[in-house]
């Protein structure tokens, strides 16, 4: 199934939204709860799956939904469709401060792999699947690096990232980064998780036990502020209001 052709614009800076412009009959899919506003004439429906394969059997849909449920993702996706003549807009917002990255899958070899929480929305026809790291042992201990999402198709998709985003082009080089800082990478990039060498680096370096290693030819997107890092800082500085049970 060819992806629907959609137009878009990115709104804002530190807390961005993406506004999708739909012609009659065009559909955009999104994670549940991502929609910010929509114009009259657009209807939405919650469905099991991304709708990329119209001939997909119920059991195949159930299997795909089971993989998403296993990774903590919602089993359902919301489909927004314009039913009226002319152009209508629907907007989606990132859930925390950062940037929205537009991806033209046709120009990126047909697919992109991203962190499991990065996907925001995409043109209908885009297949959203779960991709497990081949090295399961290091994946389990590597935190964010274990479970990834695989976006494939020939249309536009949008992912969000925390803080500032940098895009790097690898031409045979190797890049190592904190597993949480990795947002996405295109076809042609080999991805693995490696343990930090040396006990001092592990326990006193403050960089964690594992690093993501990427090499090959393609694009890599990196975020400066992973949500997990932000959440850890907030929790560590939150006041403790716990009361005493003494005298009860």
Can you offer a commentary on this structure?
The chain has 248 residues and is mainly beta. The chain is built from four helices and 17 strands. The strands form three sheets. Strands 9, 11, 12, 14, 15, 16 and 17 form a seven-stranded antiparallel β-sheet that branches. Strand 1 (7-11) and strand 2 (17-22) form a beta hairpin. The longest helix has 13 residues, at 58-70. It is globular and about 60 Å long. The model is unreliable at 136-145 and 199-207 (pLDDT under 50).
Short description:
By secondary structure, the protein is mainly beta. The protein has four helices and 17 strands. It starts with 6 loop residues before the first strand and ends in an 11-residue tail after the last helix.
Shape: globular
Distance between the termini: 65 Å
Given as residue ranges, the uncertain stretches (5+ residues, pLDDT < 50) are 136-145, 199-207
**In DSSP terms, counting alpha (H) and pi (I) runs of 4 or more, how many helices?**
4
Q: Strand fraction band?
A: over 45%
Radius of gyration: 20 Å
Rounded mean pLDDT is: 80
Summarize the main sheet: 7 strands, antiparallel
Computed structural class: mainly beta
Topology as a string of helices (H) and strands (E): EEEEEHEEEEEEHEEEEEHEH
């Amino acid at each position: 199934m060819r992806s629907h052709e959609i137009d878009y614009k990115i709104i804002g800076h530190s807390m961005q939204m993406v506004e999708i412009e739909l012609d009659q009959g065009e559909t955009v899919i999104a994670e549940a709860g991502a929609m910010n506003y929509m114009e009259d004439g657009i209807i939405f429906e919650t469905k099991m799956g991304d709708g990329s394969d119209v001939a997909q059997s119920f059991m195949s849909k159930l299997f795909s939904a089971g993989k998403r449920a296993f990774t903590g993702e919602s089993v359902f996706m919301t489909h927004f469709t314009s039913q009226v003549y002319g152009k209508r807009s629907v907007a989606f917002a990132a859930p925390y401060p950062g940037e929205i990255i537009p991806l033209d899958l046709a120009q990126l070899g047909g697919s992109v792999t991203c962190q499991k929480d990065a996907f925001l929305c995409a043109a209908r026809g885009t297949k959203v699947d779960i991709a497990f790291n081949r090295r399961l042992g290091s994946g389990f201990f590597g935190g964010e690096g274990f479970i990834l999402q695989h976006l494939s198709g020939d249309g536009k998709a949008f992912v969000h990232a925390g803080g500032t985003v940098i895009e790097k082009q690898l031409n045979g080089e190797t890049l190592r980064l904190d597993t949480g800082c990795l947002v996405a990478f295109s076809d042609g990039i080999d991805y693995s998780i490696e343990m930090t060498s040396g006990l001092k680096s592990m326990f006193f370096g403050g960089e964690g036990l594992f690093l993501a290693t990427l090499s090959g030819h393609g694009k890599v997107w990196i975020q400066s502020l992973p949500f997990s890092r932000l959440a850890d800082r907030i929790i560590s500085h939150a006041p403790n209001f716990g009361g005493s049970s003494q005298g009860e």
